[in-house]
Amino acid sequence: MVLTIEEIDAYNAQGFVLVKDVLNPSDTKPVIDELEAFIDGQARELYDQGKITDLCSDAPFDVRYGLLLKQCAEIGKGMDIMHMRSPAMFTFLGNPNFLDAVESLVGPEITCNPIQHIRAKPPSDYGSSSWSHGVPWHQDAAVMMKEAENSNVITCWLPLSKSTIQRGCLQVLPEVSKMGYLRHQKEGGTMIVPDLMPEIDPVFLECDRGDVVFISRFTPHCSVPNKSDYCRWSLDLRYQPTGQHTGRTSNPDFVVRSQSNPDSVLTDYAEWCHLWVDAFENPRGHSVHRTD
Ligand SMILES: O=C(O)CCC(=O)C(=O)O
Fold first, then answer.
1. What residues pair up with 117 in beta bridges, in sequence order?
2. Which of 113, 171, 221, 239 to mutate for ligand 1's pocket (most ligand atoms within 8 Å of CB)?
3. pLDDT of residue 128 exceeding 90
4. What is the CATH number of the domain that holds 207?
5. For 112-136, what is the mean pLDDT?
6. What angle do CA 127, 59, 66 make, to 5 degrees?
7. Does residue 50 form part of some domain?
8. What is the mean pLDDT of residues 44-54?
9. Residue 69 domain boundaries
10. N or C: which end of the chain has fewer CB atoms below 10 A?
11. Mean pLDDT of 30-47
12. Domains identified in the chain, total number
């Protein structure tokens, strides 16, 4: 779905835009099915090892992960895009419906930036899972090398289940992207130096599966712990014009759409897996956060 002129203008003015119903349920269903199968596999292994006693097989997608986490923190081990390297995820990264929206902000030559995550954000008092306690205020320009400061990397944040204030939805500071990069510190997790935090009221981006939040690399955003009984599931993916610096040279980027050179588009799933395995087995390049 292409964005309207109003949505593009809103993105340019505010540094973010929340677009409703970009995706159909059929766009994300294969990814959710894969996640459910992954969790089921992990749960069965932990059950066989005596580390959990209840498989919670009947619990829905936005409940089961939390119930399993309560029993064993190992449930989420390896659950991210680059480690799972699952076929439906690879297909989704090039989903034409989604890329039509991305093209509205990035142009027709599109590269998938390697900074990308699956986030399961379970109820924060159910145990420790990497994202359950939220993330501090930061700009995504700070999780990239400074060489990428001028790259038009756009964060696409997609809920796979309801994302509400109670579930710790994304918060953004509007219109701050115009200030460019703000200094970040390492203490407390990569975060904007507290004295430099603009005094602006945050916007809470409540949204649901099918919606997409587009955020500029200079838009401060954060999320707080999930206080509900449900798991907030999301993907955060990044896309950029082909040829610009990715800010993460240790990890593989690839072309997902090209008018000028259609043959450059990576459609080979095995090759995508190979690129990640090679990056892990033969480390090179840089993966640094831009903190003082
Ligand atoms: O999903 C969240 O809670 C935070 C996401 C985030 O910080 C990001 O995508 O850069």
1. 236
2. 221
3. no
4. 2.60.120.620
5. 89
6. 10
7. yes
8. 98
9. 5-281
10. C
11. 98
12. 1
